[in-house]
Amino acid sequence: MAEFLWIFWSFSLLGWVLERLFAAVTRSPRRRRRCLLLLPLCPVYGLGMAAVLALPPSLRSGWPLYLWGGLTATSVEYIYHWWGETFLGVSFWDYTGVFGNFCGRVCLPFSLAWGLLLFPAVYLAPLILEIAGHVPIIVTWCLMLVFAADAVCSLRFLAVTHDLEALRAAVWPVPAKP
Known about the structure:
Layout: H1 2-25, H2 43-53, H3 62-88, H4 108-132, H5 137-161, H6 164-171
């Protein structure tokens, strides 16, 4: 269980970094937080990578990784978005205007990108697990409690407000421009 948590947390954090970099590079006017209330974690990335690492070893390299890993990550992205809409009334992202989109939840360009991003991620996973193996179990338990509290508060907030912008502004207000 600790290994799953460290994979989930690590790739959720890396996903948050990737989101920030993508927004900066594309100069996106919409820099919405798609993560938890306090912690800089995007759970969809952690869940996606955990699902890819659950694939049989024969599917975790070369073209099988690109194809099956990409499909797995895209499936997790679709389910995550569907779940947010269905149970929280929140649309985390909208690919409606993007080529090859399916219900605005997933799209071909990002599915292809996920396939490419899986190659370095799959090779990074053993290093993450090796480092995590040296973390005292009490630290993992404490981090799990912090994560669980943030996740519960975030889910409750979204379930009540149905508003990602309010979630972002509640903790990370944008300073007023002079």
